[in-house]
Amino acid sequence: MLHRWRVITYMEIRAVFTMGCNIMMLEAMLLVFLMISLTICSTEGFQQQWPVPYKRFDFRPKTDPYCQARYTFCPSGFENGSIPKMKDEDIIDVYRLQAPVWEFKYGDLLGHFKIMHDAVGFRSSITGKNYTAEWYELFQLGNCTFPHLRPNMEEPFWCNQGAACFYEGIDDEHWKSNGTLVPVARMSGGMFNQMSKWLKEDNDTGIYYETWTVQEPTRAKPRVWFESYDCSKFVLRTYQKIWELGATFNKEIQTNYTRIFLYSGEPVYLGNVSSIFGPHGNKSLAEDIRMFYTPFRPPHSFKEFLISILAIYDEVVLHKTFYLFYNFEYWYLPMEYPYIKLTYEEIPLPSNKHV
Hints:
Layout: H1 2-18, H2 24-28, E1 91-100, H3 103-106, E2 116-124, E3 130-137, H4 140-145, E4 162-168, H5 172-178, E5 180-188, H6 189-205, E6 212-215, E7 224-226, H7 231-244, E8 248-249, E9 256-264, E10 268-272, H8 273-277, H9 283-293, H10 302-318, E11 321-326, E12 329-346
Parallel strand pairs: 6-9
Antiparallel strand pairs: 1-2, 1-5, 2-3, 3-4, 5-8, 6-7, 9-12, 10-12, 11-12
């Protein structure tokens, strides 16, 4: 096990130097992370639904000024998230778009680790215009995966909103040079307009990004405890919706997606922010959660980075412990081998009943 950790650490160190010792590496290499010991709350007598349903909201809240993005979210998107209306008789080609994360800055570097970003492209046959739809983090991946520990706040502070971005054009060079740009489906303009209404509702009610898929260790039919909610899930939801509307898919095309797994036994519910960190909360548990997330703070030196990696390895692998923040609630994960894994696996296009 020690040898396995050294291999991962070497990859991390290599990435640090490759990226100029930039802390953005922590956002790209989510291959080694999480947690610390705690007092577990009992769920006896409670019938838990697995996977835990992703919580939807009535509206999207304003972002906190404390949350700042390294790169502006959706800089060329249409005002107020609007989407141009197509003529009903239009024929819209749908494209699968995939490229390495941060391809615009690091080329195909993260593609070697199969860390890919997904989006959907559209082309109108009447106007000839192209469009791109993608869903990603408002404040970059690291902020969605780990919280800030602010000195004036007892509870961890999260900048974990994600949202859809729809804009005119498809950057052919971006998607083709190190990734994928292929047509996968065709639909009418009327279907596109219905999809646009759905996309706005989906975006207004699904407000936060979730990096991890959490499940039992790999076996024949592992139980999934929590589903991720990220760019690939947006693409899958969009494909499913346009299939339901009657789009025709080219089912011969293979579609693979990046997924980051945490492996654990059955999770234990701990409580929400108020019940853990409030005036009558569990002080011991609150401190454990803060201590767990401490190694994930951006290090100020290479030495701090190595110390953080050792602390994370100790908690996740040796103590087999992880705290997950999901639906604005905290869960305890009893970690199991292989603990954490990045995969690039096939998820087929929707079955085509309309061909």
